[in-house]
Amino acid sequence: MQEEKNTQQNTPETDPTDYRQIRLDKLNAMKAEGIDPFTRTSYPVTALNADLKVRYEAAEQKVFAEAGDDEEKRSAGLAAIAEETVRIAGRIMSWRRMGKAHFLDVRDGSDRIQVYVRMNDVGKEVFEAFRKWDIGDIIGVEGFVFRTRMGEISVHAKAVTLLSKSLLPLPEKWHGLKDQDMRYRQRYLDLICNPVVKDTFVKRSQVMREIRHYLDGLGYIEVDTPVLLPIEIGAAAKPFVTHHNTLNMDMYLRIETELNLKRLIVGGFDRVYEVGRIFRNEGMDPSHNPEFTTVEMYQAYTDYKGMMDLIENMYRTITMNVCGTDTVTYQGTEIAIGKPWQRMTMVEAVRAYAGVDYHDWADDAAARACAKAHGVEVEEGAAATKGHVLIAFFDAFVEEKLIQPTIIYDYPVENSPLAKRKPEDPAFTERFEYFIYAREMGNAFSELNDPIDQRERFEKQVAAKRAQGNTNAQVDEDYITALEYGLPPTGGLGFGVDRLVMLLTDSASIRDVLLFPTMKPLPSADNGETAE
């Protein structure tokens, strides 16, 4: 029966290609009658579904308040509301028949609303064509708003228009799109079938807006720096490599925006930031994606202590403005972003959680012996210094304990190539990272502005990478030149937007907050392979 076909949805037992052919047949039949649903170029709407509901509710309450117990006056008031013609457009999500009356759920970008369609209202010819439409089709509806006897605010259709034909059936409504892998691959279908997913990305947009608003309010200037770089800098992250045909040279997708932003500080921009896409050719897990979004900011004439205050207040402000509270629940744990964040040096944190004291190690050999006694893995031989061992203890004993917002500062120089040394203890740098739910969320420095020291650290990085077989690593000579012109005392900070959005939306995986996460392509059907 035709009426059964036009409301079919894909079920776990159904081959969607069967329904696709049915819909293609319908499309061809329409075209044979001179009707092409893909030729419509526009359909002006007068309101979104969510707004219609709010407006009708308010108008209805006003009528009841003014009419009181006067039924005649109440009926006249509701009839006056119905005189307003509205036009909506959206996708048919469900379809129910009650005799000659048809009830559709139509979803637009704001919400769903029920649509009531009768032949007597739209005309026999239109109604006969309408009955052949399908769930998933995109339609326009002109009519008036009313409340049904069941109490649901609906649109009573006076005209219906097919705006775009859906050739593939949606997943069956009671099962929805549950396959996690497919949800990431076909985000468009995920958004259609799981409307709550859209809320995550609306909140992501709000987070981005709040970040910019906060920094702009502090006098920062937003800038853009290149994604393609001519050299592979000496940092630890592995870059993606591409080729510039015109210049006939390999180029590298950036792994950070730091060096170019600090060039701008040299040039006289005292407060700059960039919301930037970053690319790292490394592993993937629930908190890592090869391309991700960061915010890096640099401020002249402050240091890492100033950046501590900035990030703590920024998080508090963003969380309150986006979530309406400064305490959020993440994976079942309450995170008190609004309370003062704990601050500890790395030495203090290792002492507190691992029970060992950096200052008890007389030399590098003593540190390595301590690591061995506690089962902490470090590099063999003399390569592991006291600083390396301290970092290893932190990774082994501390990070997993940092659930509430915590700032860990004063990092060993061994893993802080761009941070300024502490004047009173050159083995450490003025660097901090902050952690929430046992996850590093951001990184900050008092920026190294000594070009001689910077060159030495770059050269050590490059030597280490070349020792591992990477012959492409180079010292960024132009950055050294910029430092030689003079970088003022500067505080710098960078954090991952994706991890912040994960926190504020209670998302377990970074893929849940990326509209199009990196995925391995499915094997093609024509090469004899089958998808796992």
Number of helices: 17
CATH architecture assignment of the largest domain: 2-Layer Sandwich
Largest sheet: 9 strands, mixed
Spans of at least 5 consecutive residues whose pLDDT stays below 50 are 1-6
Global outline: elongated
CATH class of the largest domain: Alpha Beta
C-alpha termini separation: 37 Å
- Report the structural category: alpha+beta
CATH topology of the largest domain: BirA Bifunctional Protein, domain 2
- The structural domain count equals 2
Percent helix = 25-40%
Give the radius of gyration: 30 Å
Mean pLDDT: 92
Provide the β-strand percentage band: 15-25%
The H-level CATH homologous superfamily of the largest domain, spelled out, is Bira Bifunctional Protein, Domain 2
According to DSSP, the number of beta strands is 19
Quick structural summary:
This protein has 17 helices and 19 strands.
